[in-house]
Structure formats: structure tokens, C-alpha cells
Description:
A hairpin with a 5-residue loop joins strand 16 and strand 17 (304-312). The longest helix has 34 residues, at 96-129. Mean pLDDT is 87; it is low at 1-31. The protein contains 3 helices and 22 strands. The strands form 4 sheets. A 6-stranded mixed sheet has the order 16-17-18-22-1-21, with no helix packed on it. Helix 2 runs antiparallel to helix 3. The protein is an alpha+beta fold. The protein has 4 domains: 35-47 and 287-361, conserved putative lor/sdh protein from methanococcus maripaludis s2 fold (Beta Barrel), CATH 2.40.420.20; 51-60 and 203-285, Beta Barrel (Elongation Factor Tu (Ef-tu), domain 3), CATH 2.40.30; 61-94 and 171-193, CATH 2.40.50.100; 95-170, Helix Hairpins.
Amino acid sequence: MDFPALSQKRVGPALALLAAMLYTTGAPAQANTGAPVRVDTVTEQVIRQSVQLTGTVTSPRTARLSSATAGLVTALQVDAGSEVNEGDVLLELDPVLAQSQWQSARAAAEVARLAAADATRRLAEARSLIPQKSIAESAVRDLEAEVAQDAAEVQRAEAQAAHARGVLDRHRLLAPFSGVVSAKATELGEWVTPGQPVLTLVATEALRMDFPVAEDYLADVSLRTPVTYNLGDNTGDARPGTVSTVVPVTDPGARTFLLRVLPQQADARMIPGLSARAQLTIDSGRRGLTVPRDAILNYPDGRVVVWVVQDDAEGTLARETLVRTGVVFDGQVEILDGLSAGDRVVVQGNEALRNGQSISILAAQR
């Protein structure tokens, strides 16, 4: 049966409707059903070892201060936590007796100076009478001896006065350096004696971090060894440091040596006594194959697996590969066996892969 020809006006809308239906319900010409993954390449590089350390922020100066003389505490200018500058008065003792002794010694010194001046004057007069034979030579020699004796007496009296002044000055305890008072061991009205700690002062400038390190690493650590550090529980903010001192004296009990680290830049977070963690990166002196840490999967049965990307007739597939690993450093894992340089390994999306599963490689993240 012949159908009447469709006019051009009726055919156009029909074709447009058919195209819209196909776009909505139809499948693409070629669908990629592989699991989406990201990959990286096995590379050869110098193997470095990361060593984790735990230590403490320390001060270059910590002093347990004591009075240089005995006395009664009459003034206490600081408390625990007080910030002081070098030369500030921290503590004062009762100065009454010491001040009286200084005044007495000073008066005795003045008497000695007057006596010496009088003897010097009389000696000069006696010497002026020698040409007239008006005085015996023995009398002149006696005056000369008296002048010498009076001069010695002046020195002794002035030394005693200086000593008394020093004792008086030591009734005030001054800060030997700037810092923070970390402990107070005395109070007003207490009697203190020389050598008895009364205050503990800690410097807050030029702070450093001290770490005990196992003696096995002593030969590998130098002033050029790279190091980063974290303070307290702030594990997400690693900052660069500098090895300033390696003390090659091991602790016989702990078998450790002291490593001292300075921050490369001033760090206001550093407080004496705060815990610190550091990571040393030690060059092993050898080269090896490495993969990103995310490529490694550890199973409960002890297997260590990496998913390797393979291209064959079936497409791009993931193959499970057993590997033997070495040291871990800078987000990389050393591969001792199981991979070759240039192999591509899955670093994201590898948790649920099956052996031989088709994969789709995503673009590298920037």
C-alpha cells in the first residue's frame, strides 16, 4: 500500500523528536567501565632514612639563685612566672647591721687617712730641719717609718670598708641575666643562708631543642643533616631546624648521645620544658627503587602488595604484585624486590581493586 508522501514541514519536527529521544535514552558509542585510579611511576633515587626523635625545649641558661650572705628576707620583688631583665632586684635582705658595719669601716678608713696625712706633714717638716742640724737623723727615720706604717694602715682600712660595702650590696639579689622566674623557694620573713636556693631563673632567649639519639646513628649525623621539628601536640606544622651540636658522649645506660637542634627562624611558640619531636633525614649512601607510600597495601596475613598497571589486548588492567620493602622517608617507600624502574603503580583507588580488573587512569593532580 502506498503511503502519502510526508511534507517537509512534518518530517522536520519528527526527526528532531527522534534525535532528542536517542540523546536521552541512548548509550554512548564507547563507554569506559574501568575503575578510576591515579598512578605514579617507580623511580630510582638516593635512599634516605627518616629517624623520629622525641626531646625537650631547653634554655641555654638555667640558674638556681641564692644569696651571697645570710640575712632576713625583707622584700621579694618577683614571683614564679615573673619576667625580669638583667640587673633587676629580685630579693632584699635586712641591711641594718651590714649598713652599720660599712659606716664604721668607712669612718675607720677616714681616721687612717688623716693619721697618714699628719705623719706625712711632720716628716716633711723634719726633713726641712736637717740642713740646720736641728733634728737628729734617728728622729727623721722614725717619722719615715711612721709614714710607711700609716700608709699601710690606710690600705687595710680601705679594704675593710670595701669589704663591708660588698657585704651590704650582697643584701640585694640581682638578676644575672634576663629571663623568667620558674620557681620561688623563699618568702618574706625567712632567714636565708649562702648556697640556699631561693629562686630559679630561666633564660627565654636563644632556646634550643635537645634530643637523645641512639648511638647507632652517631656516625651518620652531622651539622649538615636535614631536620624538621614539631612542638607539643602540633603534629601538622613541621618546621625546618638546624643541627647545632652533636655531643659524641654516649649515656652508658641508655646508649644515646645528645643532639641539639636550633630553629632556622625565630619561633615564638618555643617555651622551656615544652616537648618537641624531630625527624632526621639521613643519607644512606646508596640508591634504590622507591614508590609513594600510598601505593603500598599491608594485609593482615603479612603480605605487602602494590597494584601494577599493565596494558594488554584486554585494555588497561591492574595486577597485584607482592613486594619487599625497605626504609620509609619523605613519603616514599624503598622497594627491595618485586618492581622495576619505570613500572606504573596505583596510588589512589587501590583499596578495592581485584586482580586483573580493568582500570581507568585519572589525570594527575596538580
